Structures are given as C-alpha cells and as structure tokens.
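Weekly sync, protein design subgroup
Attendees: M.S., D.O., the rotation student, P.L. (late)

Item 1: inverse folding check
M.S. brought a backbone from last month's batch and wanted to see whether the design step gives back something sensible before we order anything. D.O. pointed out we never logged the input encoding, so this time it goes straight into the notes. Structure tokens as presented (290 positions):
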C-alpha cells in the first residue's frame, strides 16, 4: 500500500509524576534523558533524539503514539487517504514537531479514541550508549518497540479496519484465548520486520493503554533488567515467560502511570513468507504472577 506506516517512532506519555517516570526510564529501563534544546521530558534509547516524551498531566496514559511514514510524500498520501475517509487530521505546529524530534506530523484519533500521530523526518544524533544496557535496544528499522491498546468490543472491528485499511499496518496473527476472566481476543499488527508494533485487545478498560514494550539485544541485559527492577521496587506483574506468537521472552511490570510495561528479549521477525496464524494462549510458559 502506498503511504503505509513504516514504524512506531515515538510515544508521548501524559504523566502526573514526571519525576517518577524519569527515574523509571533512566534507572530501571536504561534510557537516557535527552540533553538537547527541545525541552524537558525527552528520552533516548538509540540514535533518535527522542523515542519517549513525558508530558505533565493528569491522564496517566499514552498521550500519543507516533507512527512514522517513510517521507513527506508518504505522509501526504496518508493524510489524503484519512481525509477521504471523513477524518480530518490536525497538522502539528513547528514547535510541537521539534519537541517530538520530527520534521512534520499530523494528529488524530482512532475510532476508539486512542490519540495517534503520523510523522516524517525523524531527527538523529550521535553519542547514545546506555550504561545499563550495553548491548543496546532493538530499534532501528523495527522502531522503538510496541504499544498495546484496550478497545471496547463495540468499537473493535472499526478500530481494526482503521489500522489495517487506512494506516496500512499488516496483520501478523491473532490470539483467541480463554483466561480466568473469560475469553480474550487480540489482533497483532506489524509495520516492518518486528513481529508486532501494535496489538489491539478486545476489552473495555478505564485506561486506553495495556502496555508498552522495550526489547534488548542481549540476554544478559534482559536478566539484569529483571533483577534491577525488583531491586528498585518496580512492581512485577508477571514474571519471566515466553509468548507463542512472537517468541519473545519477557516480563511485565507497572509503570509510574499504572499501565504496564513489557521488557523483552529474543522476539522473532517477520519475512516475506509469513503466514497469519491464530493462537489459543497468551503464553506457552511462564509469565506467572508473583
């Protein structure tokens, strides 16, 4: 599809405790606070000047997911497609774009009300190296990681169609699982070789966001992060386990805003011969609650 999304480029978090987020992102996850002139609240995990932007506020949720188009021409195609579908994306100001570390962006919401942005021209800078994650994070062409959103069942089908048919994300697979709370349906989307950059859970919840995910390249960095989070008092929601669809080994904890984060290693990638599959469980081992 012309004008498709190529990666999850950045996330904005509206947080009532920005200082707690600073401690969490730098001391627990291993990101670096941006040392630039773009304003406070920016965090790096690779060569991009900003991957996470923490905005002060009371929502304690993802304020915007920043999806990247390949270039300005692709952004224009996406914007036209959205307008033809009856949506009217708002053009971001130059100051807003600068704060996000991109050349240009438009903002809108999906059918379930999740705010998102489509941007182009991400800014890069040399010199990033995490002292806590020496092997680095898995980013590059795969984007920063993934975001998982909760969507009311009444809006689920239209939300899936929005990301698939308008933004051009491609379905990776599905999970239809039986959980202690009842049946659960999840649709997974990819924009590049990462197994999924977005997952949509058919579940109504107060918070829009279920979790965000960080992935490291080295097994030792993963294990040390698990120890570090426990030592620092980060609430662990699910211990180490393995997912059947993306083959990610991971653990889950709680962010300072109350929604979850996943910290992972070893996820598989998607190639040209990928076949969409439906799985019947969320984890094939582990991910037990403490």
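Designed sequence read out in the meeting:
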């Amino acid at each position: 599809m012309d004008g498709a999304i190529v990666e999850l480029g950045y996330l904005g978090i509206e947080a009532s405790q920005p200082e707690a987020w600073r401690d969490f992102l730098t001391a627990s996850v291993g990101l670096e606070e941006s040392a630039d002139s773009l304003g406070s609240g920016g965090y790096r995990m690779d060569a991009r000047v900003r991957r996470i932007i923490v905005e002060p506020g009371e929502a304690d949720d993802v304020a915007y997911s920043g999806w990247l188009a390949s270039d300005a021409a692709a952004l224009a195609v996406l914007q036209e497609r959205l307008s033809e579908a009856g949506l009217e994306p708002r053009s971001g100001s130059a100051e807003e774009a600068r704060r996000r570390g991109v050349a240009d962006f438009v903002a809108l919401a999906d059918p379930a009300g999740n705010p998102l942005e489509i941007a182009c021209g991400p800014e890069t800078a040399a010199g990033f190296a995490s002292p806590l994650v020496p092997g680095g994070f898995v980013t590059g062409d795969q984007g920063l990681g993934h975001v998982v959103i909760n969507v009311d069942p009444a809006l689920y089908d239209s939300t899936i169609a929005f990301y698939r048919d308008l933004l051009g994300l491609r379905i990776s697979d599905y999970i239809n699982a039986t959980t202690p709370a009842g049946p659960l349906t999840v649709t997974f989307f990819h924009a590049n070789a990462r197994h999924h950059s977005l997952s949509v859970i058919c579940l109504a919840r107060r918070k829009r966001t279920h979790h965000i995910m960080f992935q490291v390249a080295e097994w030792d960095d993963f294990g040390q992060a698990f120890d570090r989070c426990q030592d620092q008092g980060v609430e662990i929601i699910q211990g180490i386990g393995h997912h059947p669809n993306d083959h990610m080994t991971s653990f889950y904890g709680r962010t300072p805003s109350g929604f979850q984060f996943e910290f992972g290693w070893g996820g598989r990638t998607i190639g040209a011969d990928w076949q969409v599959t439906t799985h019947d469980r969320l984890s094939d081992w582990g991910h037990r609650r403490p």
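Discussion: The domain at 140-286 is CATH 3.10.180.10 (2,3-Dihydroxybiphenyl 1,2-Dioxygenase; domain 1). The two ends are 44 Å apart (CA to CA).
Action: P.L. to compare against the previous round before Friday.
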